[in-house]
Amino acid sequence: MKLKGWKEVTPGAVVTKAGSAEEFKTGSWRSFRPVWLEENCIQCMFCWIFCPDMAIEAKNGKRGVFKYDYCKGCGICALECPGKKGKKAIVMEEEGK
Amino acid sequence: MGKVVAVTGNEAVAEALRQVNPDVCAAYPITPQTDMMQRFGSFVNNGKVKTEIILTESEHSSMSACVGASAAGGRVITATSSQGLALMFEILFIASGTRLPIIMPVVNRALSAPLNIHGDHSDAMGARDAGWIQLWSENTQEAYDNTIQAFRIAEHPDIRLPAMVCLDGFIISHSIERIEYLDDNEVSNFVGEYKPVNPMLDIEHPVSYGPLILPDYYMEFRKAHDAVMSKVSKVVLDVAKDFEKISGRKYGLFETYRLEDADIGIVILNSAAGTTKDVIDEFREKGIKAGLLKPRLYRPFPYKEIGEALKHLKAVCVLDRADAFGASHGPLYIDIASSLYPYEKRPILINKIYGLGGRDYMPGHAELVLNELVEIAKTGKINVVKEYIGVRE
């Protein structure tokens, strides 16, 4: 995305459009990546509820893939995931490994 | 036509605020401003204005409430002095960076410690780089006139910045002078109806204020703020022209007094300029070509225009009613020196610190300074560049 010049920014940094957080991609902040293991997922949607951003896609009441553009790697989803029979459906993996 | 009255500076500014009839006022008492907001509070309680008044628990809160009310879409005022302005410091930058045209009379008073309630410029000088417009006023008439003009300047669609109107504590705020008030309808027609930009209360067009701006955009917002500052001078002059039509009183970016053909000159802010003008008249009668320059628009500082107005002089003394501890000189001197630096031929410049904490500035002080300037203009030699005057050894 082309960054705006100083003549184009809104006076006083007022945000005049709703839902513009979608344009603010923070995935590059991440050092750990959550990985979804579908076989251990019971579709409880805890990860979707607890995610502080919008990094988990939800369609028709079901959890979909991670939207890594918005995932800062905080690990809350992996912590909250109850998994199935003691096996987590979300695990954190170090980026770059 | 308006009417002639005998009023104090605080009374006159409170009257100007009544005539403007703002939407919101959030204030906290502090000497010597207290009496101004107390008078305005009476207007609210007596139904003379439709203003919503918010009595806060501190100046930090009053400026915060002003930011909220202005972002909501209101025409907003407050007033303060000294420690109160210092306590607002953090929020001053929020108000200016968010481009909220809040109007704030500042009744200039010394800063603690040591504790002192009297007139000096340390408070407003401390906030001079907060991104606000600053208009300074010599007397009660100017404080009244500047307050009314400040609304038009700050709210101008090209500007949208908060503005301080500075007047000297006690010397002006509590002394009675003869001034002329405008009629209520002249003032309300002059300032016009307030037109908010992106008001939060416009629920059809939801907006967010105060987002996090990271290194990829912060500089663009600062550059935009700087660019707005460079447009203020023109608006100040345009508003002054319109103001002259209703009042007959002329205003510029600064006032010059017998400066055009002068050899020596004094640069001084606010009430002490009046005393200095009298002494300049005495020197003129003796055949000495002395003059004066009194800045009115101090922020943004009109460097070019002031440099042009002073460059032909032989020697100039800048008198500061505040010190900038650890800096080379007083704050006004630094700005004047910057204004003159681009000129190869420029006056010799000296700096006196005077009148701190309400210490009287007497005609004798101006005489001493002018005599020193006469000597400097003759010999080209300076004894000391920066010096406190009227201080005991």
Computed CA radius of gyration of chain B, to the nearest angstrom:
21 Å
Mean pLDDT of chain A: 94
Kindly state the percentage of residues in helix of chain B.
40-55%
Measure the end-to-end span of chain A.
28 Å
CATH superfamily of the largest domain in chain B: Thiamin diphosphate (ThDP)-binding fold, Pyr/PP domains
Q: Outline the biggest β-sheet of chain A.
A: 2 strands, antiparallel
How many beta-strand segments of chain B? Answer: 15
| Biggest protein-protein contact in the assembly | A-B, 14 and 24 residues
According to CATH, the fold-level topology of chain A is Alpha-Beta Plaits
- Largest sheet, spatial ordering of strands of chain B: 9-11-10-13-14-15
Structural class of chain A: alpha+beta
| Quaternary structure classification | heterodimer
Which class of secondary structure composition applies to the elements of chain B?
alpha/beta
Query: How are the strands of the biggest sheet of chain A laid out side by side?
Result: 1-4
